[in-house]
Design goal:
Strand order of the largest sheet: 3-4-7-8-9-10-12-13
Distance between the termini: 30 Å
Number of strands: 13
Shape: globular
Order of helices and strands: HHEEEHEEEHEHEHEHEEHEHEHHHH
Strand content: 15-25%
Length: 365
C-alpha cells in the first residue's frame, strides 16, 4: 500500500462506515486522478459466458448500489463492475446504524437492506455510461414490501437488461426478510422460469440476449445444495455467484461480532471457497462461477480460481486495503499463471476444486 493509500485509508477510518463510503463515492465521481497504473497484461484476458474480460477481477454488488461511479471504477482497472442491488422502487433500507467494521478480523457486518434509488434512477445512469470500457452487470433485488417478488426480478431484467452486459438474480441477501426462501428449489425454479421467459420475450422483440447469473448464500445446507444446483442446471443459467454474506459467526475478535446482519471479508473466505468448489462439483464445471467472499489478497484470488471460479468479485478487501489492492492482486495472478505455464485464468480454473470440495461445509464456518 502506498503512502497516499495509507493516508486516505486512515482518514476514511476516522469516519463511521456509511459516511466513509459516501465520501469514497464522491471522490471517485469528482476526481479523475484515480487511474489504473498500466494496461492489463494480456495473460489476464478471459472469456466467460460469451463476454470478454480484460482481467477476471471485479467489484461486487454493494459498492456501487446506484450505478453512480462505473466510469471511475474502470479507471481503477477492474475487469467487471456489478451495480446494485437495485429494486424496482427506491428503498431506504434498514434503520441506521447498519454497517460495522470489524477491523481486527478484516471483516464487515451489514444489515443495509437493499437501500437504493430504484430502477428508474439506475437506468438513467446506465444509459449514460461510457460503452466499451468493460463488462457491467446489474444485481437485481426485490422490494421488502413487494406483493410479488418474482415480478420485481422480471421488472429489473426488462428495464436494465438492455443497458448492461449481464444481470444477477440476488436471492441470497440475508437482510430482506424471507428473500432467501426464493433459493428453495421449487421457488427458485418458478423464479427462473419467469425471468428466463421475460428474457426470451426481449430477444423476440429484437433486444440482445443477456447472461443471467444467480447469486447464492453461503449458508445453504450441504444437503440442499445439490438440489439447488440441479434447478440451476435444468434452467440453464449462464453463471452462478458464490457467495453472498453469511449469517454464521465464526470465531471473531472484534467487539461488534454480535451485530445482526451479513458478515463479509476474511472470515468468510474458507466457507465461501469450499462452497464454490462444491457448486463446481455439483454442476460438473458446466456453469461458470463467480467467486466472492474474503478476496482480500492475491493468494485468496488464486485460491478462488483454483477452487472453480472463472471470475472474482471483491468489496470488503477494498475497505481495508484500498484501491492499490487491485494492482497487487493482478500482479500476483500474472506471476502465478507464468510460473505454472498457464495461458490465461481459464486454464487455472478448478485446479484444486476437488481438494476444496473434500471439505464439509459444516466444518468451514
Amino acid at each position: 500500500m502506498s503512502d497516499i493509500d495509507r493516508l486516505a485509508m486512515a482518514l476514511l477510518r476516522c469516519l463511521p462506515p456509511e459516511p466513509a463510503h459516501r465520501l469514497t463515492l464522491w471522490a471517485l465521481r469528482a476526481s479523475r486522478a484515480f487511474r489504473s497504473a498500466e494496461p492489463d497484461d494480456p495473460i489476464l484476458r478471459t472469456r466467460v459466458f460469451g463476454l470478454d474480460f480484460a482481467n477476471p477481477i471485479g467489484v461486487a454488488a454493494g459498492f456501487d448500489k446506484n450505478a453512480a461511479v462505473i466510469d471511475a471504477l474502470w479507471r481503477l482497472g477492474f475487469g467487471l463492475i456489478e451495480a446494485g442491488s437495485i429494486t424496482p422502487l427506491p428503498q431506504r433500507g434498514n434503520p441506521t446504524p447498519r454497517l460495522f467494521r470489524l477491523g481486527a478480523d478484516r471483516a464487515v457486518i451489514n444489515r443495509l437492506g437493499f437501500n437504493n434509488d430504484g430502477l428508474a434512477a439506475a437506468a438513467a445512469r446506465l444509459a449514460e455510461r461510457r460503452r466499451g470500457a468493460g463488462v457491467v452487470g446489474a444485481n437485481l433485488g426485490a422490494n421488502k414490501d413487494s406483493a410479488d417478488r418474482i415480478a420485481d426480478y422480471v421488472a429489473g431484467l426488462v428495464r436494465l437488461g438492455p443497458l448492461v452486459d449481464y444481470v444477477t438474480i440476488n436471492v441470497s441477501s440475508p437482510n430482506t426478510p424471507g428473500l432467501r426462501d426464493l433459493q428453495a428449489p421449487a421457488a427458485l425454479d418458478d423464479l427462473l422460469a419467469r425471468v428466463l421467459a421475460a428474457r426470451a420475450e426481449l430477444i423476440a422483440a429484437g433486444k440482445p440476449s443477456r447472461p443471467v447469473v444467480v447469486k447464492l448464500a453461503p449458508d445453504i445446507a450441504e444437503g440442499d445444495l445439490a438440489r439447488i444446483c440441479d434447478v440451476l442446471l435444468a434452467r440453464a443459467v449462464d453463471g452462478i455467484a458464490v457467495s453472498n454474506t453469511t449469517l454464521a459467526r465464526p470465531i471473531l475478535s472484534a467487539t461488534r461480532r454480535g451485530e445482526a446482519g451479513g458478515l463479509s471479508g476474511r472470515p468468510l473466505f474458507q466457507r465461501s471457497t469450499a462452497m464454490l468448489a462444491h457448486v463446481w462439483g455439483h454442476t460438473g464445471g458446466r456453469v461458470p462461477l463467480i467467486g466472492i467472499g474474503g478476496v482480500g489478497a492475491g493468494a485468496a484470488a488464486i485460491a478462488k480460481i483454483a477452487a472453480g471460479a472463472s471470475l472474482l468479485q471483491l468489496y470488503t478487501g477494498l475497505v481495508y486495503e484500498g484501491p492499490g489492492l487491485l494492482e497487487r492482486m493482478k500482479g500476483e495472478l500474472v506471476a502465478y499463471l507464468a510460473e505454472h505455464q498457464l495461458a490465461d485464468p481459464a486454464a487455472a480454473t478448478s485446479r484444486r476444486a476437488r481438494d476444496w470440495a473434500a471439505r464439509p461445509l459444516s466444518s468451514t464456518g
